[in-house]
């Protein structure tokens, strides 16, 4: 990160086209990474809150079913689960966000 900061600082003072393009690409990609991370966290948070509220209000079979579903999801390795989700849904940015959120 420090070298990127120095590169952008150099690009601002010396205005070379190559450094300016590289600095702009790094800014655009970091914005995209932040967007993907925030959307994934928002999806997983909303799904978790919804399932938790559903299990709390509808006791009995619903609570046990959601608990067993979470046990199965936590038993699988995260990377394997994400690969399986992407394989089922197909490639794409939105599907990758779903895979990260799960």
Shape: elongated
N-C termini distance: 29 Å
The parts where pLDDT drops under 50 for at least 5 residues are: none
Largest β-sheet summary: none
Radius of gyration: 21 Å
Order of helices and strands: HHHHH
Helix percent band: over 70%
Derived from helix and strand composition plus strand pairing, the structural class reads mainly alpha
Strand content: under 5%
> How many DSSP H or I helices?
5
DSSP, total strands: 0
Mean pLDDT: 82
Topology:
Blueprint: H1 2-14, H2 17-57, H3 61-75, H4 78-89, H5 93-101
Helix pairs in contact: 1-2, 2-3, 2-5, 4-5
Description:
The chain has helices at 2-14, 17-57, 61-75, 78-89, 93-101. It is mainly α and 102 residues long. The mean pLDDT is 82.
Can you give keywords for this protein?
mainly alpha
Task: Give a quick precis of the structure.
This protein has 102 residues and is mainly α. It is built from five helices and no strands.
């Amino acid at each position: 990160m420090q070298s990127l900061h120095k590169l952008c600082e150099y690009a601002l003072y010396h205005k070379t086209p190559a450094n300016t393009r590289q600095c702009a690409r790094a800014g655009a990609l970091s914005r995209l990474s932040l967007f993907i991370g925030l959307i994934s966290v928002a999806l997983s948070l909303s799904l978790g809150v919804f399932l938790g509220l559903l299990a709390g209000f509808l006791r009995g079979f619903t609570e046990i079913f959601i608990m067993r579903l979470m046990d199965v999801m936590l038993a699988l390795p995260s990377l394997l689960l994400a690969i399986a989700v992407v394989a089922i849904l197909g490639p794409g940015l939105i599907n990758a966000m779903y895979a990260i959120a799960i």
